[in-house]
Amino acid sequence: MAGEQPKKTQQVALDGTDVAILAALAEDGRMTNAALAARAGVAESTCAYRLRALRDSGVLTGIRAHLSPEALGRPLHAIIKVRLGSHSRELVHTLYDRLTGLPGVLTVFHVGGDDDFLLHVAVAGPEALRDLILEHVTVHPMVRQTETQLVFEVREGRGVLPA
């Protein structure tokens, strides 16, 4: 939600059953509890209990659909680096909320270093990328500079689960 700070969670010790459940969900988030239990080698009631515990502990924060930007008419990916001229906490959080709400923005990273934000965007083409930057990013008075890098290919990483 806009303006909501991420929930801070404690590191949770996971056993093999927890990892098996999470790995199966990461592969197919639509898996039924029965299929998930069979995959993890536990009873359905145990699986349901473990899922609830993983949610309650903050390990499992949600399950989402993966959409194809290309199939939705947004084949051009780019990373937009945003550098700010001022850094008041309130203005930074307000800008962060606005950036995450822009159409075509896939991910926004608030980072340290020379840049302040990195936006991964998917747009229809070069003109749409230009318009996104000029009409929605550089219009904010605190934005001092942007730099855009085109993305040639995107691959998901292995993730955070142990092997």
Describe the structure.
The chain has 5 helices and 4 strands. Helix 1 crosses helix 2 and helix 2 (33-40) crosses helix 3. The protein has helices spanning 16-27, 33-40, 44-56, 89-100, 126-137; strands spanning 76-84, 105-110, 117-123, 143-151. The protein has a 4-stranded antiparallel sheet with strand order 2-3-1-4. The longest helix has 13 residues, at 44-56.
* Helix and strand pattern: HHHEHEEHE
CATH architecture of the largest domain: 2-Layer Sandwich
How much of the polypeptide forms β-strand, as a percent range? Answer: 15-25%
Task: Describe the global form.
Answer: elongated
Helical content band: 25-40%
Radius of gyration: 20 Å
Mean pLDDT: 93
Structural class: alpha+beta
Q: What low-confidence regions span 5 or more consecutive residues with pLDDT below 50?
A: none
Q: State the helix count.
A: 5
Instruction: Say how many strands there are.
Output: 4
Number of self-contained structural domains = 2
Largest β-sheet summary: 4 strands, antiparallel
Task: Briefly note the CATH topology name of the largest domain.
Answer: Alpha-Beta Plaits
Domain HTH asnC-type: 14-75
GO molecular function: sequence-specific DNA binding
Pfam families: AsnC_trans_reg, HTH_24
InterPro entries: AsnC-type_HTH_dom (IPR000485), Dimeric_a/b-barrel (IPR011008), Tscrpt_reg_AsnC-like (IPR019888), Tscrpt_reg_AsnC/Lrp_C (IPR019887), WH-like_DNA-bd_sf (IPR036388), WH_DNA-bd_sf (IPR036390)
